[in-house]
Design goal:
There is one protein chain. The protein is α+β, with helices and mostly antiparallel strands. It has one domain. It has three helices and five strands. The chain has helices at 6-13, 17-26, 42-52, and strands at residues 3-5, 32-34, 37-41, 57-60, 70-73. The chain has a three-stranded antiparallel sheet. A two-stranded antiparallel ribbon has the order 4-5. It is elongated, with a radius of gyration of 18 Å.
């Protein structure tokens, strides 16, 4: 387990500290408060990031005008 600060995680994820703070406050990212300061487990952050990545989707455009495109997930 590697504990990281808000600043370290914001650099890792390449997001503003204020964005990361907001995510932590809303419970959108795994985080804990220690003596009033946000702390993050980097293993949990990496797992959260992996699970947050949207997978590419193949769109079949060979459809008739009345139906929506068929979206098929591409296996990872």
């Amino acid at each position: 387990m590697q504990i990281a600060t808000l600043k370290e995680v914001s650099l890792f994820l390449k997001v503003k500290e204020s964005t990361l703070y907001s995510w932590a406050e809303k419970g959108c990212i795994p985080a804990s408060k220690l003596n009033g300061l946000w702390r993050f487990d980097m293993d949990e952050i990496r797992e959260w990031f992996r699970n947050s990545i949207k997978r590419p989707v193949k769109v079949d455009m060979a459809i008739n005008a009345k139906s929506a495109p068929i979206r098929t997930p591409i296996p990872a």
